[in-house]
Amino acid sequence: MVVLFKLQDVELRIGAVQILDDITLEIDGGVTAIVGPSGSGKSSLLRLLNRLEVPSGGVIRFQGQNLADFEATKLRRRVGMVFQRPALFAGTAATNLRVAVPALSNEDVSQALRQVGLDPALADRPADRLSGGEAQRLCLARSLLVHPEVLLLDEPTASLDPESVTIIENLLATLTKEGLPQIWVSHDLDQVGRIAHTVIELETSDHDGVGRLVKQQS
Amino acid sequence: MILLPIQTVLTQTVLSQAASVQVSPDQALADPVGIDGLGLVASGSIVLVAVLLSVWQQLGLGRSLILAAARAGVQLLAVGFILKYTLDPDTPLLVAFVWIIIMVAFAGWTAKRRAPEVPAMALLSALSLSSAAVIALGLLFGLGVFDFNARTIIPLGGMVVGNSISATVLVARRILDSFEEKRPQIEARLALGQTNEAASAPYLRSALQTALLPQIETTKAVGIVFLPGAMVGLILGGADPQTAVAVQVTVMYMVLGSVAISTTVLGLGLRRRLFSTDGRLISLAAEGMDVGDSSA
């Protein structure tokens, strides 16, 4: 299987705080889950992969190329991201989708909504009037519109009701079958059991509070 | 060609009459309102009323009111003495330029004191105020609206800097708050492949609108709700009301333009400081406000 990301001796320091240290691992296709206790740096590790953070040490490679050599805007269109809380923009659901692709036609909007199981009639609904599950699916649709080669998901179902969790998991399982690799951060070990092909486990060191890699298993 | 009528109008109405106020004060100040030293002290009774109100309502502002009034009085009297020298027709232009530079530097320092949480505030505000001064004064003098000499450069420069400083502090604070509050939205836009500029544009625009709105509202209400200070000063000084109005309109346009220029320059400069060169929104809290090397 093709190696998507390769991390070598990666460390992350933000200001005076060391978040991650000595992370060496490889991530390939399928679904990879990053697990670990709160504060172990799971989300920070994910943010390193699309350069919302940059490592203070070590090297990260995407498809063999140093991440630092990519233009950030181009990299982020190849490495999509869905955040824990739906980050909606002012305007309607359609407006939100057009932030990703401004030239989207009404039919394209309907198609994008259908892809994530949303009723196309929601296109004209103000985004702040969507339910939590609908909002997260809209964010997923928005990310998919730029046709990423891999999708980063930072606890995408953490704030959702069980029905919405099932819908999102099924949607992402379909995308996996269609060949879209995903990297999930999750607290929910049952969910990890359902979705993940590979698990990366981080721990918070009792000694210095810094997140380190415990193990990686497929 | 388009400028010709404006210039003509300004030349015939504003300049000739304003110039008569500036150049030949004895002719224009037909019935000036003279205030002697005793009158100045007596005018302090209005501040005394404010102090009594503060004491009555236990606002705890008495000391601040007295200090502010005393400081303003001392500062203006000192400026009056200096102006007497600088406004002399023989004063070299260099003195006026040095005065403006000192004013901008002091304004930068004041802005930094008012908004210490904003990174590089002194530099950014000094830069934005300088831009406003250069453009506004450049247009006014370039188009021949006012005579180019120390007598006009210093007071007009003072109006530009003095009226823009509050707006620059307001816009800087607003941008900082807005970018932190909208961090999830800005990062979601970045994650979609948008540039720093595109990702932050809606929030920068909103901050600039907030900062400019008070000046726009003031400009709209002028003449109906209140009479501006420059005009009142000219009328009390004995100038013809129409002359005073013409000068005031010119000054008001200059202030409106200056506020717009200074807030925009500051907004664009501050945005550059809040993003790293590789497209990340910097967290001032996490970075301990150390954004000196934003390319790190």
Summarize the structure.
The complex is a heterodimer of chains A (218) and B (296). Chain A has seven helices and ten strands.
**Beta-strand content of chain A:** 25-35%
Distance between the termini of chain B: 51 Å
Give the overall shape of chain A, derived from the CA principal axes. globular
Low-pLDDT residue intervals, each spanning 5 or more residues of chain B = 1-31, 289-296
Task: Please state the CA-atom Rg of chain A, rounded to the nearest Å.
Answer: 17 Å
Query: Helix-strand pattern of chain A, N to C?
Result: EEEHEEHEHHHEHEHEE
Terminal-residue CA separation of chain A: 13 Å
Number-wise, the strands of chain B total 0
Report helical residue fraction of chain B.
over 70%
The unreliable regions of chain A are: none
Strand content of chain B: under 5%
* CATH topology name of chain A: Rossmann fold
